[in-house]
Amino acid sequence: MTSKTDEALGYEQARDELIEVVRRLEAGGTTLEESLALWERGEELAKVCRRWLEGARARLDAALADEEEAEEGE
Questions:
Q1: Are the beta carbons of 53 and 12 closer than 8 angstroms?
Q2: What pLDDT sits at residue 56?
Q3: pLDDT for res 47
Q4: Which parts of the chain have pLDDT scores under 70?
Q5: What is the pLDDT, as a whole number, of residue 2?
Q6: How many CB atoms lie within 10 A of CB 9?
Q7: How far is the CA of 71 from the CAs of 51, 65, 67, 74, in angstroms?
Q8: Does residue 36 come out as left (phi exceeding 0), alpha (psi in the -120 to 50 range) or beta?
Q9: Exposure pattern of 59-69 as b/e (b: 16+ CB <10 Å)?
């Protein structure tokens, strides 16, 4: 479940935090419990990033469709 805080994160913030989570997991040296918590956080951050990217894609698709309609109407 995504928290309200996650929903307020911008794409760049979520991406940067996700990069840090991955870096910490790859570095090792954490307990199993810490690793699981990091993994779960990473999954939530990836969802936030995915929602931002899907929204951007939808806006781009809508703009391109509007442009095509305008060209056809000329």
A1: no
A2: 96
A3: 97
A4: 1-5, 7
A5: 56
A6: 20
A7: 30, 10, 6, 5
A8: alpha
A9: eeeeeeeeeee
Local structure of residue 73 (DSSP, 8 states): T
Mind giving me the DSSP string for 10-70?
-HHHHHHHHHHHHHHHHH----HHHHHHHHHHHHHHHHHHHHHHHHHHHHHHHHHHHHHHH
71: DSSP letter:
H
What is the Cα–Cα distance from 23 to 26, expressed in whole angstroms?
Answer: 5
Q: Is the pTM of this model over 0.70?
A: yes
Tell me how far CA of residue 25 lies from CA of 2, 37, 53, 68, in angstroms: 21, 10, 24, 46
What is the Cβ-side half-sphere exposure of residue 49, based on CA atoms within 13 angstroms?
14
pLDDT at 17: 98
Cβ atoms of 55 and 72 within 8 Å: the answer is no
